[in-house]
Amino acid sequence: MSSNVKTFQFLVEGGKASAGPPIGPALGPLGINVLEVVKKINELTKEFSGMRVPVKVTVNVERKTFDVEVGTPTTAALIIRELKAEKGSGQAGREYIGSIPFEAVVKIAALKRKDIGAKTLKAAVKSVVGTCQSMGVKIDGKTPKEVLAEIEAGAYDEVISKYEGGGGGVA
């Protein structure tokens, strides 16, 4: 059974995959409709426009069917998108390139939680705050270290619990 299933991984720009390399040449010989695959990839990645997104395409060679799974861009790429910046600060800790709202940090954490491997959303939020620290990005105008101390003190528990499984999560 598994010999009839082939899996491919591509890194595509959100919403801009094409039937050209690397997708077309990899999938074309399998006899599936490459344009359908590309259309599906673009549909699933359009919210990540301007970012490189990992995509996994699983093809059942016998049935000529396919399945597309979209990964998430890196935490840093999501922060950059939120900031609408080009790249992080060259001197993080001394030089800040901007500030993002705490709610954006929580949304990124919710999106990346599985990849980060965090047991709780709060732990994932701390990881994203750490990435902000290393990139020179403030949160609500505060340094990531200040925000981390406030998270530890429970100041953001209510905001975080809004995103934790859609309800009042336990901290």
Structural class: alpha+beta
Radius of gyration: 19 Å
N-to-C span: 44 Å
Shape: elongated
At CATH level 3, the topology of the largest domain is Arc Repressor Mutant, subunit A
Percent of residues in helices comes to: 40-55%
List keywords for this structure.
single chain; 171 residues; alpha+beta; Ribosomal protein L11, N-terminal domain; Arc Repressor Mutant, subunit A; three-stranded antiparallel sheet; disordered C terminus
Task: Walk me through what this model shows.
This protein is α+β, with helices and mostly antiparallel strands. It folds into two domains: 69 residues, Ribosomal protein L11, N-terminal domain (2-Layer Sandwich); 89 residues, Arc Repressor Mutant, subunit A (Orthogonal Bundle), CATH 1.10.10.250. It has seven helices and five strands, in the order E-H-H-E-E-H-E-H-H-E-H-H. It has a three-stranded antiparallel beta sheet with strand order 1-2-3. Strands 4-5 form a two-stranded parallel sheet. Helix 3 runs antiparallel to helix 4, helix 4 crosses helix 5 and helix 5 runs antiparallel to helix 6. The C terminus is likely disordered.
